[in-house]
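Give me the fold.
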Amino acid sequence: MKGASRVRRKAARKRPATARRRDLAAQPILFGPDTVCFVMDPSRSGQVLARHAGISEKTGQLAADEDGGPRRLVISSDFYAVYSSAGNKADGLVNLYCWAHVRRHFVRAGDASPVQLKYWTDAWLELIRDLYAAHDGLMAAWQENAAPAAREKDAAVARLETAREAWDDAITSIDETRKKQMQAPGLQEPAKKALATLDREWDGLIAHRDYPMIGLDNYPDVAVMPMFAGGGGSAAGQGGVLAA
């Protein structure tokens, strides 16, 4: 059995990367709360996003809700221009950007200049790790507060407020550090690039505070072409495990 597994893995590696991506892109995605399935598309064009997320290609606006009223949509994704452009155009569309993608920029900066940036990178990874911990706490508190027992209601509200304060403390530390370092002279170029990315995508990164039911990462490492979208009782997306 082990030999057969090695043969299958070796054969998969020999296939063109584009073919492997198509295989992954063809996998159905299941997500809740009521299990739904859709087929991924191998492209990340604006047309694909419009089709999956219910966005008019002519106006760039979200299609109306079932009752004809305005619809809101949250997209958790990487920084791909199609997603950010949609968020800039469509009323009611909120972009949440993936913190795993941001973290990767800091890791790469440290790899590019390990002597000069090792401690700088380690410090940044610790700041981001603190935010992940705070978001885990906020998500747990939000879930507890969603439907608490009558006698637990006040305590659940207090825990949620405490979790929000912890999230604010973590993101404030990141914000203050990035602003200070962006003004500091002599910073290595890889570090400048990482900070520039953080600054450019900042609004979509801090928007996670208002959506504690959604994780900071929009997809697991094995997924491709990531996009999470949810709102109005429906969801659509590419890659990863999605939730309405």
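The beta strands are 28-32, 36-39, 73-77, 93-97, 227-231, 234-238, 242-243.
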